[in-house]
Amino acid sequence: MNTEQNRPIGEDAIGAKDVCSIARLLGDIAQLSDPLDQKRRPLIAGLAELIEADAWLWTLGRVDPKRKIPMQLEMLFDGLTDPQLAALLDSPSDTTISSPCDQPLAALVAQGEHFVRTRQQLVDDDVWYNNANTKTYFLRHGIDQCMYAITPLEGEGFSGIGFFRRTGRPAFTEQQRQIVEVVTSEVRWLYESSLTERMGSAVAKLTPRLRSVLPLLLDGYLCKEIAKLFHLSPHTVKGYIRDIYRHFDVKSQLSLIRYFQGGTPKNK
């Protein structure tokens, strides 16, 4: 188990009740007959309930080799409104001011080990609340407390889960962080994917906006739905989609999804 050394013992440590809750969650997931990749959502949703998170966002992606910030390729989420989801996707793509958590997270990913950190363990309150990215993409949309569980993958890839609480709620506790650490360090299938190495370098060449649109297309979102999320005209989004199709040499959303699943695109 990839747990941290010098873990605090006492009221902040997980207890027998937490262990029972973790065992029950993993047992429930193990009984599901769904394929492994379809067990992600109930597992993360159950984990979010254990730590009393209001929302979560799971992504599989890579770290931008130039800016050292995350790029999402696959995505699942729950508990987020459309504006909140759009804000979280836009936050790492903002080229003017980055989230204060981006660089600390990228540095930890570069170490090549699974980790779980609360926002307070990444940046202090003064930096967080005075950062323009935080104000624009988090606080303005009612998101404040965060916790990230990230597992580095080969080729600068990563699997990351963000747990969030709305503004006004307390920070995640060390005990809750440990619960997430125990579960996410033991479910290696959570990070399995059919994405191939060629995807990372290809996605890195997209503009920040196109990188925000791509995971929505892969998740089955339609043009009008993406336009609503980002408060853009359907005409503008159609242009983004056309650029993405051209970049990956496909002619339909289905072909794009097949391409990222590692198959041979049809109807090119």
What would you say this structure looks like, in words?
The chain is of the alpha+beta class and about 270 residues long. It folds into 2 domains: about 180 residues, Beta-Lactamase, CATH 3.30.450; about 55 residues, Arc Repressor Mutant, subunit A (Orthogonal Bundle). Helices cover about 45% and strands about 15% of the residues. It has 13 helices and 5 strands. Strands 2-1-5-4-3 form a 5-stranded antiparallel β-sheet, with helices on both faces. A hairpin with a 6-residue loop joins strand 1 and strand 2. Helix 11 crosses helix 12. The longest helix has 16 residues. The protein starts with 15 loop residues before the first helix and ends in an 8-residue tail after the last helix. The N terminus and C terminus are likely disordered.
Considering the chains and any ligands shown, give keywords for the structure:
single chain; 268 residues; alpha+beta; Beta-Lactamase; Arc Repressor Mutant, subunit A; 2 domains; 5-stranded antiparallel beta sheet; 13 helices; 46% helix; globular; disordered C terminus
- CATH homology-level superfamily of the largest domain: Transcription factor LuxR-like, autoinducer-binding domain
Which stretches are low in confidence, meaning pLDDT under 50 for 5 or more residues running? 1-10, 263-268
CATH class of the largest domain: Alpha Beta
Q: Residue share in helices?
A: 40-55%
Question: In which order are the strands of the major sheet placed?
Answer: 2-1-5-4-3
Q: What is the total domain count?
A: 2
Q: How many beta-strand elements?
A: 5
Q: What is the tally of helical segments?
A: 13
SS-derived structural category? alpha+beta
Strand content: 15-25%
End-to-end gap:
44 Å
CATH architecture field of the largest domain? 2-Layer Sandwich
General form: globular
Mean pLDDT: 84
CATH topology of the largest domain: Beta-Lactamase
Largest sheet: 5 strands, antiparallel
Q: Report the order of strands and helices.
A: HHEEHHEHHHEEHHHHHH
